[in-house]
């Protein structure tokens, strides 16, 4: 049942998800008297704040991903298992996965979120999400393939649809990918596709609310919008996408946009598991937790990061923002609290320390909110670069990202414009 994880006489902490929170928790618990088992559907940690760089052909996927087994090579009492977690059986203290069942003493759900299509099956079937490295690679392939196809089709309407790019969602991801694609249109396409009429490549950013970057200050929102409009992005606020039919994005204002490049970054919902019923869930299907990140109604099950919602903190009555820093701080504190539980000590409640928010729009353009200090432009962009470079795991990855950034800055070019779709490897004859 325990899929080859030995019983060693220590309390077992099972962590579901190796994102920012799960990774921080695992690192803090290793070599501390617990047996730590990390379960994830990928065998690597992905640095999601820069996933748009992969989608826009700016970075190699390996630059923002780092294998879990490499991270924990020298850690004792740590085990990684590559599996999908399908259910939680709190009565029997076990999780159900694609490779079997696993007992736990403490369970920590840090599985993050998944794309929310708000129940529209048409959109879910055709839109390009951007929540994982695989999805970013798929988007890159489709965008580049559609540019190639637009040069060879004789149908003028189809050509325009192949050259229209529609991004739905004006949060940080939507703003960043819009800026990156705008720079590709300006600096890359004219050199790679000299026969293409670049002015016919249209980038639309559609947001249902009155402002971009709703989680940031009004100044940051206004500056991001100003930057994008100046870069040629068609920013459409107070506009709701109703459907996608016959190759067109249907808007609530009666307008439709023909496109084969339909990018959906308009919202997320908490990942779901069997036996985690609606009584445990709050807004956005996030798991309800108390001030110690303990799932309300369960004794030894915790949730951290984007998948949980904590309303106990006075300054965040609707839950904390779904940011990496929240997950990291929750993982750090929960590690200390689990150790305190074993020692019979009092647990510390979680209080989020807001270290600020940043979003990059493009070359020399970013916005930043730091408590009372609001910045935009070149200096905010430099701060964004430094913070993200420091946060990437692995010296090799840091060097590769830095080299790509410097190369792109000096040459106005992006070098990872490869259409590479993975294919299933054929087995030799006679091998099952």
UniProtKB/TrEMBL annotation:
Signal peptide: none annotated. Keywords: FAD, Flavoprotein, NAD, Oxidoreductase, Transit peptide. InterPro entries: FAD/NAD-bd_sf, FAD/NAD-binding_dom, NDH-2, NDH2-like_C. The keyword S-adenosyl-L-methionine does not apply. Residues 355-408 form the External alternative NADH-ubiquinone oxidoreductase-like C-terminal domain. One of its GO terms (molecular function) is NADH dehydrogenase (quinone) (non-electrogenic) activity. This is NADH:ubiquinone reductase (non-electrogenic). It comes from Bacteroides luti. Residues 12-331 form the FAD/NAD(P)-binding domain. Belongs to the NADH dehydrogenase family. Its EC number is 1.6.5.9. It catalyses: a quinone + NADH + H(+) = a quinol + NAD(+). Pfam families: NDH2_C, Pyr_redox_2.
């Amino acid at each position: 049942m325990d899929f080859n994880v030995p019983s060693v006489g220590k309390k077992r902490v099972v962590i579901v998800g190796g994102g920012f929170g799960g990774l921080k928790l695992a690192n803090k618990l290793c070599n501390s008297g617990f047996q730590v088992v990390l379960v994830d559907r990928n065998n690597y940690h992905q640095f999601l704040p820069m996933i748009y760089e992969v989608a826009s052909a700016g970075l190699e996927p390996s630059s923002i991903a780092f294998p879990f087994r490499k991270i924990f090579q020298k850690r004792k009492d740590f085990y990684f298992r590559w599996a999908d977690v399908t259910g939680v059986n709190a009565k029997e203290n076990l999780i159900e996965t694609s490779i079997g069942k696993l007992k736990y003493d403490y369970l920590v759900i840090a599985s993050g979120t998944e794309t929310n299509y708000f129940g529209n099956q048409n959109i879910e079937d055709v839109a390009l999400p951007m929540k994982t490295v695989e999805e970013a690679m798929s988007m890159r392939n489709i965008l580049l393939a559609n540019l190639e196809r637009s040069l060879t089709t004789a149908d003028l309407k189809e050509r325009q649809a192949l050259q229209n790019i529609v991004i739905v969602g004006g949060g940080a991801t939507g703003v960043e990918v819009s800026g990156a694609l705008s720079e590709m249109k300006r600096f890359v396409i004219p050199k790679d596709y000299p026969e293409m009429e670049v002015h016919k490549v249209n980038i639309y950013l559609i947001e249902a609310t009155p402002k971009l970057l709703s989680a940031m200050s009004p100044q940051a929102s206004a500056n991001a919008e100003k930057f994008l409009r100046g870069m040629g992005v068609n920013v459409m606020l107070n506009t709701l996408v109703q459907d996608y039919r016959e190759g067109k994005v249907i808007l609530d204002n009666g307008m439709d946009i023909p496109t084969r490049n339909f990018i959906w970054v308009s919202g997320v919902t908490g990942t779901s598991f069997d036996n985690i019923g609606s009584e445990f869930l709050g807004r956005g299907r996030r798991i309800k937790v108390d001030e110690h990140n303990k799932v309300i109604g369960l004794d030894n099950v915790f949730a951290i990061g984007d998948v949980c919602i904590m309303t106990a903190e006075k300054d965040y009555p609707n839950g904390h923002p779904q940011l990496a820093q929240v997950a990291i701080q929750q993982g750090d504190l929960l590690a200390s609290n689990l150790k305190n539980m074993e020692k019979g000590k009092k647990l510390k409640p979680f209080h989020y320390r807001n270290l600020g928010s940043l979003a990059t729009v493009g070359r020399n353009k970013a916005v930043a909110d730091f408590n009372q200090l609001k910045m935009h432009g070149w200096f905010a962009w430099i701060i964004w670069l430094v913070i993200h470079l420091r946060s990437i795991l692995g010296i090799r990855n840091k060097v590769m990202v830095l080299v790509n950034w410097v190369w792109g800055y000096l040459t106005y070019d992006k070098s990872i414009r490869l259409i590479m779709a993975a294919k299933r490897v054929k087995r030799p004859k006679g091998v099952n």
